[in-house]
Amino acid sequence: MSGLAIPPLDPSLVDRLVRAALDEDGAVRDVTTQALVPPEQQGRGVFLAKGSGVVAGLPVVVAAFHALDPSIRLSPKVQDGALVEPGSVVATVEGPLAPILSAERVALNFLQRLSGVATATRALVDAVAGLDVRIVDTRKTTPGLRALERYAVRVGGGHNHRFNLADGVLVKDNHLAAARSRGLSLAQVVAAARASAPHTMRIEVEVTTYAEAEEALAAGADVILLDNMSVAEMARCVGLAQGRALTEASGGVTLANVRAIAESGVDIISSGALTHSAKALDISLEIETA
């Protein structure tokens, strides 16, 4: 998104992830390329967008090629966060053809996947434009790729929820069920969480009804997660929480209903679909030999 400062990816993390992906793909044992492409042959490739969307993941593409041959040169024609249309040139790559071909699939997998997440995020962000609300992701990410997918959410203009279970207190329905089976009230649950957590950490409680929201606010929750509520009931809860706690809407968020949800007045809208259901952006690599 133009003007949006996007925290960069950790290069050491990117290197570790791309090397694991290349190893999984057998890139250094690419029997087809080794049989057909001599080491001295040079080539050039063009990354072409075949669909409309937001580009994300170009630093990962660079890392994928450099992991096999640091002499490969990738020249981005757009930056992460740019909107592309079918036929747009995303980047060009030049150098020894064999390692380019061996890294091609891994590079494309990352670029397509992360661009898909960024595209899905941008759609929701654009749908709530002008309203004072944040679109955020969840922990419903591809195992091992959370840092990359959350980067893509930021590229799309969204924000990140807690990165992992150590980053924030979120008392969900199963936590409450476990506590209530021992005779604890919600007020006791919140007090126990606050006593255990650092003083800088907010206490968030998931609720599904207006009555539960009242109970959570009375217990001193800092954030109320409104789970799978109707827009009307969300609006009632927002009015109740005004000035007392932040409100987060979650569950069943779609492009069709996200603006109505935002108009309820919630502070945050979280969507697991940004990462678990984003459609990969169709991008191809067309090779031109010297």
Walk me through the structure.
With 290 residues, the protein is of the alpha/beta class. It has two domains: 11-125 and 278-289, Alpha-Beta Complex (Aldehyde Oxidoreductase, domain 3), CATH 3.90.1170.20; 127-276, Alpha-Beta Barrel (TIM Barrel). Helix content is 42%, strand content 19%. The chain is built from eleven helices and twelve strands. The strands form three sheets. A six-stranded parallel beta sheet has the order 6-11-10-9-8-7. A four-stranded antiparallel beta sheet has the order 3-5-1-12, with helices on one face. Strand 9, helix 9 (231-241) and strand 10 form a beta-alpha-beta unit. It is elongated. It starts with 10 loop residues before the first helix and ends with a strand. The mean pLDDT is 95.
Write the H/E string, N to C.
HHEEHEEEHEHEHHEHEHEHEHE
Query: If helices are DSSP runs of H or I spanning 4 or more residues, what is the number of helices?
Result: 11
Q: What structural category characterises the helix and strand content?
A: alpha/beta
Name of the CATH first level of the largest domain: Alpha Beta
CATH topology of the largest domain: TIM Barrel
**Regions with little confidence, pLDDT below 50 for 5+ residues:** none
Q: Give the N-terminus to C-terminus distance in angstroms.
A: 36 Å
Q: What is the CATH-assigned architecture of the largest domain?
A: Alpha-Beta Barrel
Q: What best-fitting shape do the alpha-carbon axes yield?
A: elongated
What oligomerization state is this entry in?
A: single chain
